[in-house]
Amino acid sequence: MTLDSAPVREPRPRKAKAPAKPALKKSEATRQRILDAAAFVFRRKGYAHARLSDIARKSRTQTSSIYYYFDSREAIVFEVLRIANEKTALYVTNAMAELPGGASARDRISAAIHGHFRIVLSDNDYTSAHMRIFDQLPDKVQRHFLEVLDRNAGLWRELFEAARAEGVIGADVDLSVLRLLLLGMMNWSIEWFKPGRMSVDQIADQAVRMLFDGVGPRPGTETAAGS
């Protein structure tokens, strides 16, 4: 075989690199570091016992410097909770976005449950801090975020109404009670979940099964003793 007749090997195409995220300005990076530290401290100490000096030490900054970015401890916790709610909504909507078009209401609710469990049990300081301190917050902050939570709950209302229309939720079920029970159960899982025995998605599968099929044995299956 001559050089002229040798097969030409095309160069392997290089994988396209994901566009680099723009670097944060120094002030933005410091502000984010303070928020990350605040979420860490609030999660572990609660609202009442978390001091600005704790946040400053964790964020490697001076306590007095925090006031350049936030007016008060209340302003910091306000931002921590805002981020926590955004993260939760994003996990839920992203999980639903993975479904094919025309997915059933049951499938959409299942995806939403998986997304919610994934963020709640992700060991994320923001969502964990939200769970830990919400009942300790000043009334003004609580009222604001109760409104935020109610707006976010609109997605679940729509999902349950669609499920009822498709005949998978009985007409005699109070959808508000169902929503509050489901969200309360998912949020409380942060208190008892221990990695190892079951994965987060397996726990989500159990929640979906119980929600739609109950806890009785399915036809053709054997009951097994559990702990």
TrEMBL record:
Keywords: Coiled coil, DNA-binding. The keyword Endoplasmic reticulum does not apply. It comes from the Bacteria. GO terms for molecular function: DNA-binding transcription factor activity; transcription cis-regulatory region binding. Residues 51-70 bind DNA. It holds the Pfam family TetR_N. This is HTH tetR-type domain-containing protein.
